[in-house]
Q: What sequence folds into this?
């Protein structure tokens, strides 16, 4: 199995470290030719969604990425990566997102929450995080924190508003590999 990690801006290195701990090969995508390499799935990391969007467009990755996801390329978006999949960006996932949803004071916080399909509490680090305001029927809600949707899945698209790569816990990445990518 080989996972691509979009590495234009933001917290991409931490995803590589997490995948390494799971014994999974990965590579960084910094331009179109990196993007075109064979991959079983792609991670879109947290960072600044406006910057990531601009770079995806400038590097001509936006359209092929959108098409590939529409054709079933497994994708895991964390925080800004979640925003990238919404109806105002790549538009591949049937979700409407509120950015910087917790206000300036509450922008960053830690919570231990439930995650459907994983036993026990998951450590959740939120950094100027979004949440999902609205989602369509095909979207399965995986986690709700303080009444807000913070993790969801639509077929082969998984999103979290928090940053699982910033904690030692490997289970959300494992969930992505086992339940979304599903390649041995
Ligand atoms: N606030 C950022 C945005 O709107 C997302 C923050 C993050 O990815 N940690 O793009």
A:
């Amino acid at each position: 199995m080989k996972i691509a990690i979009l590495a234009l801006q933001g917290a991409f290195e931490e995803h590589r470290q997490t995948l390494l701990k799971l014994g999974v090969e990965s590579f960084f995508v910094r331009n179109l030719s990196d993007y075109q390499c064979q991959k079983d799935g792609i991670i879109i990391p947290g960072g600044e969604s406006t910057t990531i969007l601009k770079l995806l467009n400038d590097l001509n990755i936006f359209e092929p990425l959108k098409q590939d996801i529409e054709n079933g390329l497994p994708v895991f978006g964390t925080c800004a990566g979640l925003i990238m999949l919404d109806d105002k960006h790549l538009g591949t996932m049937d979700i409407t997102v509120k950015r910087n949803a917790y206000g300036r004071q509450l922008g960053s916080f830690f919570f231990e929450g439930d995650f459907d399909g994983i036993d026990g509490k998951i450590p959740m680090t939120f950094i100027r995080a979004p949440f999902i305001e609205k989602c369509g029927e095909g979207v399965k809600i995986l986690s709700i924190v303080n009444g807000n949707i913070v993790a969801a899945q639509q077929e082969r698209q998984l999103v979290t508003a928090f940053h699982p790569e910033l904690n030692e816990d490997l289970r959300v990445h494992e969930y992505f590999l086992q339940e979304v990518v599903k390649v041995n």
